[in-house]
Amino acid sequence: MPSAHELTIAAPDDWHLHLRDGDTLRAVLPFTARVFRRAIIMPNLDPPVTDVALCAAYRERILRAAPPGFEPLMTLYLTEQTRPGTIAGAAACGFVHGVKLYPKDTTTHSAAGVGDTGKISGVLEAMQRHDLPLLVHGEAAGAGIDPFDREKIFIERTLIPLRADFPELRIVLEHITTSDAADYIAGAGERSAATITPHHLLYSRNALFDGGLRPHRYCLPLPQREAHRRALAAAACSGAASFFLGTDSAPHARHDKESACGCAGVFNAPAALGIYAAIFEQAGALERLEAFASLNGPRFYRLPVNRERITLVREAEAVPRCVAAGGDEIVPLLGGGEVAWRVRR
Ligand code: DOR
Ligand code: ZN
């Protein structure tokens, strides 16, 4: 049994990460690379990463910005124009590990996403054949849909039929927010999995309005009621193979968040592992943190577990108040505060 003050685990990976590009990439990547060995890199750049050549070039830019030893696991952005041949090329190239489905107009840079999944059935069939995972932003689009119902409706209308049509396809429902999603994934078989973010484990929707509007806690899908937050914590802390760590760290410039129409995304990379450790500690489940952070993801993605090990110690670590990126500032989750666990250097 680990002591209550120290925990040594296989080095963790982040199975859902936004790094952006240019100055922002260079500013945020060190915070991820200091604790995570690998990360699944989201393709929602502007313009999006829709083919293998764009993806190879983006990977090179990440590697140039990364410290030695960090491995970006790349993804492609699915559009209604994606062709099955692109999938074959992605599966063969060796560095693409998934293809991301953004339902059109649901979140940051999703305008090129998919409005009608009927139009991508040939591509999904190719992904199933090449065993390339589908990574899903699980929200139904439409102005008439209550924002807090979007995940549940997406599961009912889109994910359940898609799961039935492509039974061999590996699917990750990203950043789940509801007990409905946790229950669905727990019962959906070994080819279905979900990532869970630190902010959805830390905050219910109350946190968005805590003493005033809190733009740096705003993300999509929205955090939900406390009962849902508890269901997510139970799923993560269960150690079940279908739930694993994905931070969805999504940096935006301070002025874009603190705006009359603030954009969605929480930059949590500096605090993420400390938050996860605290959630597992509160649940009395520290011995299952390794499964969630370091074992379940590689098993699902069919990659080796990291051989390197890290030791987490129960000592406070300060979270920077803000991070400079080019001429902009980015405000981290818990910025100016601290987390209770840190990695021993
Ligand atoms: O809050 C979010 N921010 N949710 C997403 O799905 C995208 C992300 C981003 O790219 O900023
Ligand atoms: Zn994301």
What secondary-structure arrangement, pairings included, does this model have?
Elements: E1 6-10, E2 14-17, H1 22-33, E3 38-41, H2 52-65, E4 71-77, H3 84-93, E5 96-101, H4 121-130, E6 134-136, H5 150-165, E7 171-173, H6 179-186, E8 192-196, H7 198-202, H8 226-237, E9 243-245, H9 254-257, H10 272-282, H11 289-301, E10 309-313, E11 317-318, E12 323-325, E13 328-330, E14 338-339, E15 342-343
Parallel strand pairs: 2-3, 3-4, 4-5, 5-6, 6-7, 7-8, 8-9
Antiparallel strand pairs: 1-10, 10-15, 11-14, 12-13
The chain binds (4S)-2,6-dioxohexahydropyrimidine-4-carboxylic acid (DOR) and zinc ion.
Keywords:
single chain, 345 residues, TIM Barrel, 15 strands, binds zinc ion
